[in-house]
Protein backbone atom coordinates (compact mmCIF):
# COMPACT_ATOMS: atom_id res chain seq x y z
CA UNK A 1 0.00 0.00 0.00
CA UNK A 2 1.08 3.60 -0.56
CA UNK A 3 1.91 6.05 2.21
CA UNK A 4 -1.43 7.86 1.87
CA UNK A 5 -3.32 4.57 2.24
CA UNK A 6 -1.24 3.53 5.25
CA UNK A 7 -1.69 6.91 6.91
CA UNK A 8 -5.46 6.79 6.41
CA UNK A 9 -5.69 3.28 7.86
CA UNK A 10 -3.52 4.16 10.87
CA UNK A 11 -5.17 7.52 11.53
CA UNK A 12 -1.96 9.51 11.14
CA UNK A 13 -0.63 11.92 8.55
CA UNK A 14 1.80 11.21 5.73
CA UNK A 15 4.02 13.84 7.31
CA UNK A 16 4.08 11.77 10.53
CA UNK A 17 5.16 8.72 8.55
CA UNK A 18 8.07 10.66 7.06
CA UNK A 19 9.05 11.84 10.53
CA UNK A 20 8.99 8.28 11.88
CA UNK A 21 11.34 7.30 9.06
CA UNK A 22 13.69 10.20 9.81
CA UNK A 23 14.06 9.36 13.51
CA UNK A 24 14.35 5.63 12.96
CA UNK A 25 11.03 4.49 14.42
CA UNK A 26 9.75 3.05 11.15
CA UNK A 27 11.82 1.11 8.64
CA UNK A 28 11.85 2.35 5.08
CA UNK A 29 9.90 -0.10 2.88
CA UNK A 30 11.00 -1.12 -0.56
CA UNK A 31 9.69 0.76 -3.56
CA UNK A 32 7.43 -0.50 -6.27
CA UNK A 33 8.33 -0.37 -9.94
CA UNK A 34 6.78 3.07 -10.26
CA UNK A 35 8.97 4.45 -7.44
CA UNK A 36 6.38 4.64 -4.63
CA UNK A 37 7.08 3.24 -1.17
CA UNK A 38 5.32 -0.09 -0.81
CA UNK A 39 4.09 -0.57 2.77
CA UNK A 40 2.55 -3.75 4.17
CA UNK A 41 0.52 -4.73 7.22
CA UNK A 42 3.65 -4.97 9.41
CA UNK A 43 4.16 -1.23 8.99
CA UNK A 44 0.53 -0.65 9.95
CA UNK A 45 0.97 -2.67 13.17
CA UNK A 46 4.14 -0.75 14.00
CA UNK A 47 2.40 2.58 13.56
CA UNK A 48 -0.60 1.47 15.64
CA UNK A 49 1.79 0.55 18.46
CA UNK A 50 3.53 3.91 18.15
CA UNK A 51 0.20 5.74 18.28
CA UNK A 52 -0.90 3.77 21.34
CA UNK A 53 2.31 4.48 23.24
CA UNK A 54 2.44 8.17 22.38
CA UNK A 55 -1.21 8.41 23.45
CA UNK A 56 -0.13 7.18 26.88
CA UNK A 57 2.52 9.89 27.02
CA UNK A 58 5.64 8.03 25.98
CA UNK A 59 7.93 10.54 24.22
CA UNK A 60 9.14 9.67 20.75
CA UNK A 61 12.71 9.43 22.01
CA UNK A 62 11.67 6.70 24.45
CA UNK A 63 9.70 4.62 21.98
CA UNK A 64 12.48 2.41 20.55
CA UNK A 65 13.20 0.83 23.95
CA UNK A 66 9.53 -0.06 24.46
CA UNK A 67 8.78 -1.11 20.90
CA UNK A 68 11.74 -3.42 20.68
CA UNK A 69 11.86 -4.73 24.28
CA UNK A 70 8.57 -5.96 25.77
CA UNK A 71 10.28 -6.30 29.15
CA UNK A 72 10.71 -2.53 29.37
CA UNK A 73 6.98 -1.95 29.72
CA UNK A 74 6.88 -2.07 33.53
CA UNK A 75 9.51 0.62 33.98
CA UNK A 76 7.82 2.78 31.35
CA UNK A 77 4.44 2.44 33.04
CA UNK A 78 5.97 3.45 36.38
CA UNK A 79 7.47 6.55 34.79
CA UNK A 80 4.22 7.43 33.02
CA UNK A 81 2.27 7.02 36.25
CA UNK A 82 4.65 9.31 38.16
CA UNK A 83 4.49 11.89 35.41
CA UNK A 84 0.67 11.72 35.32
CA UNK A 85 0.52 12.14 39.11
CA UNK A 86 2.74 15.22 38.90
CA UNK A 87 0.55 16.69 36.14
CA UNK A 88 -2.59 16.04 38.18
CA UNK A 89 -1.04 17.79 41.19
CA UNK A 90 -0.05 20.73 39.02
CA UNK A 91 -3.53 21.01 37.51
CA UNK A 92 -5.18 20.66 40.92
CA UNK A 93 -3.05 23.53 42.26
CA UNK A 94 -3.87 25.59 39.18
CA UNK A 95 -7.61 25.05 39.67
CA UNK A 96 -7.27 26.12 43.31
CA UNK A 97 -5.55 29.33 42.21
CA UNK A 98 -8.26 29.98 39.62
CA UNK A 99 -10.98 29.41 42.23
CA UNK A 100 -9.25 31.86 44.57
CA UNK A 101 -9.00 34.48 41.83
CA UNK A 102 -12.69 34.09 41.05
CA UNK A 103 -13.80 34.30 44.67
CA UNK A 104 -11.72 37.43 45.32
CA UNK A 105 -12.40 39.14 42.01
CA UNK A 106 -8.69 39.04 41.31
CA UNK A 107 -6.79 39.70 38.12
CA UNK A 108 -5.23 36.59 36.55
CA UNK A 109 -2.03 38.40 35.55
CA UNK A 110 -1.27 39.29 39.19
CA UNK A 111 0.48 36.77 41.47
CA UNK A 112 -2.06 34.70 43.45
CA UNK A 113 -0.81 36.25 46.71
CA UNK A 114 -2.02 39.62 45.43
CA UNK A 115 -5.40 38.46 44.12
CA UNK A 116 -7.26 40.46 46.77
CA UNK A 117 -5.71 43.67 45.42
CA UNK A 118 -7.47 43.23 42.06
CA UNK A 119 -10.76 44.89 43.08
CA UNK A 120 -8.84 47.94 44.32
CA UNK A 121 -7.10 48.26 40.96
CA UNK A 122 -10.44 47.87 39.18
CA UNK A 123 -11.90 50.64 41.32
CA UNK A 124 -8.86 52.83 40.68
CA UNK A 125 -9.28 52.24 36.94
CA UNK A 126 -12.67 53.97 37.12
CA UNK A 127 -10.98 57.01 38.65
CA UNK A 128 -7.69 57.19 36.75
CA UNK A 129 -7.30 54.43 34.13
CA UNK A 130 -3.71 55.27 33.14
CA UNK A 131 -2.51 55.37 36.74
CA UNK A 132 -4.29 52.12 37.61
CA UNK A 133 -2.61 50.45 34.63
CA UNK A 134 0.75 51.88 35.72
CA UNK A 135 0.34 50.57 39.27
CA UNK A 136 -0.73 47.16 37.99
CA UNK A 137 2.37 46.92 35.81
CA UNK A 138 4.58 48.05 38.70
CA UNK A 139 3.12 45.38 40.98
CA UNK A 140 3.65 42.66 38.36
CA UNK A 141 7.27 43.78 37.93
CA UNK A 142 7.93 44.17 41.65
CA UNK A 143 6.43 40.78 42.55
CA UNK A 144 8.62 39.07 39.96
CA UNK A 145 11.77 40.82 41.16
CA UNK A 146 11.31 40.19 44.89
CA UNK A 147 10.18 36.55 44.70
CA UNK A 148 7.26 34.61 46.11
CA UNK A 149 7.99 34.87 49.85
CA UNK A 150 8.50 38.64 49.76
CA UNK A 151 5.37 38.97 47.60
CA UNK A 152 3.36 37.71 50.59
CA UNK A 153 4.80 40.61 52.61
CA UNK A 154 3.93 42.94 49.74
CA UNK A 155 0.34 41.69 49.90
CA UNK A 156 0.20 42.63 53.60
CA UNK A 157 1.63 46.05 52.79
CA UNK A 158 -0.92 46.70 50.05
CA UNK A 159 -3.74 45.60 52.33
CA UNK A 160 -2.92 48.56 54.56
CA UNK A 161 -3.06 50.97 51.62
CA UNK A 162 -5.79 49.50 49.46
CA UNK A 163 -8.84 51.34 50.79
CA UNK A 164 -9.94 54.05 48.35
CA UNK A 165 -11.47 56.61 50.70
CA UNK A 166 -12.95 59.84 49.30
CA UNK A 167 -9.78 61.67 50.37
CA UNK A 168 -7.50 59.21 48.56
CA UNK A 169 -9.77 59.27 45.52
CA UNK A 170 -9.50 63.07 45.36
CA UNK A 171 -5.71 62.92 45.64
CA UNK A 172 -5.55 60.24 42.95
CA UNK A 173 -7.61 62.36 40.56
CA UNK A 174 -5.33 65.33 41.16
CA UNK A 175 -2.22 63.22 40.58
CA UNK A 176 -3.68 61.87 37.33
CA UNK A 177 -4.37 65.43 36.18
CA UNK A 178 -0.74 66.57 36.61
CA UNK A 179 0.78 67.53 33.31
CA UNK A 180 2.99 70.00 31.43
CA UNK A 181 0.72 72.94 32.29
CA UNK A 182 0.66 72.20 36.03
CA UNK A 183 2.58 74.84 38.02
CA UNK A 184 5.49 73.47 40.04
CA UNK A 185 3.97 74.84 43.23
CA UNK A 186 0.79 72.85 42.66
CA UNK A 187 2.79 69.67 42.02
CA UNK A 188 4.84 70.19 45.18
CA UNK A 189 1.72 70.89 47.24
CA UNK A 190 0.06 67.70 46.02
CA UNK A 191 3.18 65.68 46.87
CA UNK A 192 3.15 67.12 50.40
CA UNK A 193 -0.54 66.26 50.82
CA UNK A 194 0.05 62.72 49.57
CA UNK A 195 2.91 62.27 52.02
CA UNK A 196 0.86 63.67 54.90
CA UNK A 197 -2.01 61.35 54.06
CA UNK A 198 -0.02 58.14 53.59
CA UNK A 199 2.67 58.65 56.23
CA UNK A 200 0.56 57.39 59.18
CA UNK A 201 -0.52 54.30 57.23
CA UNK A 202 3.01 53.53 56.08
CA UNK A 203 4.15 53.34 59.71
CA UNK A 204 2.13 50.11 60.06
CA UNK A 205 3.22 48.57 56.76
CA UNK A 206 5.62 45.61 57.11
CA UNK A 207 9.00 45.96 55.47
CA UNK A 208 9.49 44.25 52.13
CA UNK A 209 13.05 43.21 51.37
CA UNK A 210 14.18 44.09 47.86
CA UNK A 211 17.40 43.72 45.92
CA UNK A 212 19.55 46.60 44.74
CA UNK A 213 18.36 46.25 41.15
CA UNK A 214 14.66 46.63 42.00
CA UNK A 215 14.53 50.44 42.47
CA UNK A 216 16.45 50.91 39.21
CA UNK A 217 14.02 48.82 37.17
CA UNK A 218 10.95 50.33 38.82
CA UNK A 219 12.41 53.78 38.25
CA UNK A 220 13.04 53.00 34.60
CA UNK A 221 9.44 51.87 34.21
CA UNK A 222 8.28 55.07 35.90
CA UNK A 223 10.28 57.14 33.43
CA UNK A 224 8.46 55.48 30.56
CA UNK A 225 4.94 55.87 31.95
CA UNK A 226 4.60 58.96 34.16
CA UNK A 227 4.94 62.49 32.85
CA UNK A 228 7.48 64.95 34.25
CA UNK A 229 5.19 66.53 36.84
CA UNK A 230 3.97 63.14 38.06
CA UNK A 231 7.56 61.95 38.43
CA UNK A 232 8.39 65.13 40.34
CA UNK A 233 5.48 64.57 42.72
CA UNK A 234 6.53 60.93 43.19
CA UNK A 235 10.10 61.94 44.06
CA UNK A 236 8.99 64.52 46.61
CA UNK A 237 6.50 62.09 48.12
CA UNK A 238 9.19 59.43 48.50
CA UNK A 239 11.65 61.91 50.02
CA UNK A 240 9.10 63.10 52.59
CA UNK A 241 8.11 59.56 53.57
CA UNK A 242 11.74 58.38 53.87
CA UNK A 243 12.66 61.44 55.90
CA UNK A 244 9.81 60.78 58.32
CA UNK A 245 10.87 57.17 58.71
CA UNK A 246 14.39 58.00 59.85
Automatic annotation (TrEMBL):
Gene Ontology molecular function, alphabetical: DNA binding; DNA-binding transcription factor activity
Residue span(s) of domain HTH merR-type: 1-69
CDD domains for the chain: HTH_MerR-like (cd00592)
UniProt cross-references to SUPFAM superfamilies, sorted A to Z: Putative DNA-binding domain
One Pfam family here: MerR_1
Swiss-Prot/TrEMBL keywords: DNA-binding
The UniProt record lists the keyword DNA-binding: yes
Coiled coil start-end: none
InterPro entries reported for this sequence: DNA-bd_dom_put_sf, MerR-type_HTH_dom, MerR_fam
Gene3D superfamilies: 1.10.1660.10
Alphabetized PANTHER family for the sequence: HTH MERR-TYPE DOMAIN-CONTAINING PROTEIN (PTHR30204:SF93), REDOX-CYCLING DRUG-SENSING TRANSCRIPTIONAL ACTIVATOR SOXR (PTHR30204)
Protein name (record): MerR family transcriptional regulator
Originating species: Amycolatopsis antarctica
Amino acid sequence: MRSSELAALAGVTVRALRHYHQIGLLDEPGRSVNGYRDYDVRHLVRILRIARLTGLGVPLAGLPAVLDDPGAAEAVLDELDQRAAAEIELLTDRRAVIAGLRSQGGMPDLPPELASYGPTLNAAADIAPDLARFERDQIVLLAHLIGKSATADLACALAELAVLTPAITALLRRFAALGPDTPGEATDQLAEELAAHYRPMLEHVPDVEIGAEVPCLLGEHTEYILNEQQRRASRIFQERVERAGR
